[in-house]
Structures are given as C-alpha cells and as structure tokens.
Design a protein that fits this description.
5 domains; six-stranded mixed beta sheet; 3 helices; Dockerin_dom_sf; Proteinase inhibitor I42, chagasin; Dockerin_1_rpt
C-alpha cells in the first residue's frame, strides 16, 4: 500500500523540481498562464538606447525615423505607421527607440514589434508577476512591473580618439487595453476613439533694420517706418535706429505658402516682399540696413510730377506754417527747401518695382554650457555649398563636418557641422550659401549650468521639459519664499509627446536661496539663486 501511495507523490516532486529548475536555471524562459493577459489586453515594454559622442568618434550620423509615441499619463500608444504583424492574438508589444547626440550624430529612430507569445528566445520572457526578463547589452535584465532598468557604459570608437557614452533603458509599462492603440489599420471596439493630439503651432519673429537713403547727414532718424504682415493684423514701427521686430507670427502652413510683408512711410516708396516663415528671420542688419527710397509724397508707388507739385506747394515752409508737409521733408531738417528738391530729383521716375530683394537671414539662438557640442545641419549638394564664419573663436570652435544620410525633399544630402563651446561668452556663427542665403546662429556659452544671479524685482526663467516616454512631471520647492517667488508657469512649446515648460520667478528681496525641481521619478535639479 505504501508503494502505491508514494508513487503519485514522487511524480509531483519530480514535476515541481522540473518546473523550478526551468524557472531558476534559464532567465530566457518563464511560465505564465495565458489568462493573465486578456484577449483585449497587451503588455507594453519600452527599450531605449541613447548614444552620445564625446570628442572625435569618427563618422557623424543623422537619423530621423521615429514611428511611434507613448503617452504614459494617458497610457496611449500612437503609431504613425502600420504595426507589422499586429492581430487579435497579440500579447506583448515591444517599443525600441534609439537616439544619438554629441559628436556621434543627431536624431532618433523608433519601431514597434508585436508578439503573440510570452517568451521569445534570446529576447524576452514574462514572469508570473508580470516582471520582464529582457536581453539587452549582452545580458539578461529583470524589470518588475512599473519599474525602469538603466545602465550607462563608455567605450572607445572604431576611429577617432574620443569616447562613446551609451545609456540603455528598459521600462515595463504593464498591461494596456488594445483600445489604447492608435495606428493605421488597427480598429478597436471603442465607439469614439481618442483623437491623436496635435502639436501646438509654432510661432516665429521677423526683425530687421531699415534706413532712408537720404539721411547721409541726419542720424537716428529712421523711425516710424511701418512693417505689416498682410492678413494677420500684425505690425511694428521702426525706432530711431531703424530697428523693428514682430513676434508671435504663426509658421507658414506649408512649403508653398508665403507671407506678404509691406514696409511703408509717408514720403517713401512702399516696399513689399514675400517670405516663408519656418524660423526666426532678420531683414537687413545694423551695418547693412534695407534702404527706403524717398520722394513718393502722395504714396502712389511712383515718384513723378504729382509729387513735384506737392513739394512745390510746401516749398520754403517750416513746421509752424500752415502749408508745411512733413512727407516732403526728406532730409529731416524741418524746412522744405532745395535739399529736398535735390533728393526728389535724384529719385524721379523711380517706382516700388525698383527695389532689389533683400537678403533674408535665418536667426537661431543657441544656449550652451562649456564643453557642450552643437550640430548645425544644412542642405548641401548638387552645386549648393555653404561657407561659415565665427565671430569669436575663443567662445566656440569648429570640430568637424560630415555628410549625413538624411535626404531632404529636393533630393540633396544634408551636411552637418559640429562645434564645441570652449569658453564663456557670446559668438555668432554665420553660414552663407552659394545661392546667397544666410543663416545666423547666435551662441551664448555659460560655465555654470545652474547658478542664477538676478537683481531685486528682476524676473528669470527656468525652462524644463515634461512628458516623453516616462511622462515626466516637475514639481519645485523654494528654499526661502521671502527672497524669490513664482510669477507664472507657461507652456512655451508643445510637441507630439512632450511639452517645454517655462517657470518664471521674481527676486523680491536681496539674499541667497535655492529652487529645487523634482520629477515624479525622483530626479532632482537644484538652482542656487542670488538676488542682489
């Protein structure tokens, strides 16, 4: 009887030994009941590889193929391409993202892979408690439900004497409903799908310098030229130096759309120009302002006998006289005399069509810390070339130029120039193309990343990024609110899956304090503040 009784126990013990040996002896395999992940559910795993080049690491690469975004706060997975292999039996979705930066290159790429099994040899397995065993950087990594694993390693490049710093990340985002997937070709049982969030429109500025060609003697009298963007109701007047700036102009909606910008002032030929707006631009400069032609008293876009008649009617008058016409005082000497006659005679028969199109310069402002790198990518090839100049090579220095793999819509390859910030200060990198286009990059380099010094009653901004794959949120604590207080918090740019947030603070009394920002993941940044 005992032998018959013990035999089933022996089988049970052997079975348990077999199960535990499999579970404990091979990280690449685990057992999980299928019912743990429902038919309308999937487990989402996100992996991220961030590669940063430091110094000379050889070829500079450009990648640009992000295919999906994950909204961690909403638990929504959005793909802009069809997800290969997706079907109703899917149990696991793995998102893989790669980013490169520094001297290694620039850009990002991502893709989704789907699986209808809970174990994939040499890739991943799912444990009973929904922990993930994932093979990354030549080893198995265990990531519990809701946790993130990360590792940073440094290596030598194949060529060059710099170093490559790579950070590997695995995040186990857990169980999701299949209705949380938004992608072409995927239908969900949700009767009213959540619409894909759209990025906020980008706004840019147009600035520049104007001058009257008649003001060889009069200085600082270039004011009150009106610059207007037709159809938007946006305008500005020049100051005495001829400078103007119009902010908050929406980006042109498509490559073929243009803004009509008009420049006018009583006594001058009206000037018009068409421009796209996909960046901040400058028209003219302090050394080469855009000239405006005087003589058009009746503003009919031509200087002719009609204007001569109007000048004659106010000849020899001064501002206190009834017949004085300020539009005919071209040289700003407060009297209509032969000086103005000479100017109108010089420009006689000129029309608005005689204006030469000005050079439009793209303006980019870049803030760097000492030893940081920045990459400037411009279209180049098939006869189009760029030359650059640096106004202050003690602040920023050229490192290398590479032709990347990114192809522009016109079929021309993009070249990338890499620069390194070497000292505190300001500098301008000016690129001029063989076609006459100009791009300016205003560089500001600071040494201390976090110290802030302001005067009493002065405001200062702290910009940080929220959102992204980890759904980052920032909170702050002020050490002494008698010294600094919060003025406002605003979104300055909203991307597909992130937002750039600007906190504006004000120094209210002299002293020292600090502002500590902490993320929902426990990361902290402390800004020492001095109010003078």
């Amino acid at each position: 009887m005992r032998k018959n009784f013990c035999l089933p126990k022996l089988f049970v013990v052997l079975a348990l030994i077999l199960v535990f040996s499999v579970l404990g002896g091979a990280n690449s395999f685990a057992v999980l009941p299928a019912e743990t992940i429902g038919e309308d559910e999937f487990l989402f795993i996100h992996t991220h590889t961030y590669t940063e080049g430091i110094g000379d690491v050889g070829e500079y690469k450009v990648i640009d193929s992000p295919t999906y975004f994950y909204w961690a706060d909403q638990r929504k997975l959005t793909s802009y391409d069809e997800v290969p292999g997706y079907n109703a039996k899917i149990k696991v979705i793995v998102g893989s993202e790669r980013r490169i930066a520094g001297t290694a290159g620039i850009g990002s790429a991502s893709e989704l892979a789907v699986y209808d099994t809970l174990t994939v040899k040499d890739k991943f397995s799912i444990d009973y408690d929904l922990s993930v065993n994932f093979y990354m950087n030549n080893e198995w990594r265990k990531v519990k439900l809701g946790d993130t694993w990360t590792q940073t390693v440094e290596s030598a490049p194949e060529t060059g004497n710099g170093k490559i710093r790579t950070t590997y990340t695995i995040t186990n985002f857990g169980i999701h409903k299949k209705s949380d997937i938004i992608a072409p070709g995927i239908t969900t049982p949700t009767p009213q799908p959540t619409p894909t969030p759209k990025p906020s429109p980008k706004n840019y500025s147009i600035s520049g310098y104007l001058s009257s060609e008649s003001l060889q003697l009069a200085q600082d009298c270039h004011d009150n030229f009106k610059i207007e963007i037709q159809g938007l109701g946006l305008s500005a007047l020049t100051d005495k130096s001829g400078y103007f700036k119009i902010d908050s102009i929406p980006e042109t909606s498509s490559p073929g759309s243009l803004y009509l910008v008009t420049i006018s002032k009583a006594g001058y030929l009206k000037r018009s120009l068409l421009t796209q707006l996909s960046e901040n631009i400058e028209i003219g400069s302090p050394l080469q302002p855009i000239p405006m032609i005087p003589g058009d008293i009746n503003t009919d876009s031509v200087i002719n006998m009609s204007d001569i008649v109007l000048l004659a009617k106010s000849f020899n008058t001064i501002p206190s006289d009834v017949g004085f016409n300020s539009a005919a005082d071209f040289n700003y000497d407060k009297v209509i005399n032969m000086g103005d006659v000479v100017i109108i005679a010089k420009n006689f028969n000129a029309t608005s069509a005689d204006y030469v199109n000005p050079t439009i310069t793209g303006i980019n402002n870049i803030k760097l810390y000492k030893d940081d790198y920045t990459a400037i990518i411009l279209r180049e090839g098939q006869g189009l070339t760029w030359d650059y100049s640096i106004s202050n090579e003690n602040v920023i220095k050229f490192q290398l130029k590479q032709t990347g793999t990114l192809q522009y819509s016109e079929g021309l390859p993009g070249s990338t120039w890499s620069f390194k910030a070497i000292n505190e200060g300001t500098a301008t990198i000016t690129f001029t193309s063989s076609a006459g286009k100009v791009q300016k990059y205003n560089i500001t380099v600071t040494d201390d990343k976090y110290d802030i010094t302001v005067k009493k009653d002065e405001t200062f901004d702290i910009p940080l990024r929220e959102g992204g794959i980890a759904s980052t949120k920032w909170d702050y604590v002020i050490g002494d609110e008698n010294i600094v207080k919060l003025e406002s918090k605003n979104v300055i740019y909203r991307g597909i899956d992130f937002a750039d947030i600007k906190w504006t603070f004000k120094g209210i009394s002299k002293g020292t304090t600090s502002i500590t920002f902490t993320t929902n993941r426990g990361d902290t940044i402390t800004f020492p503040i001095t109010v003078t």
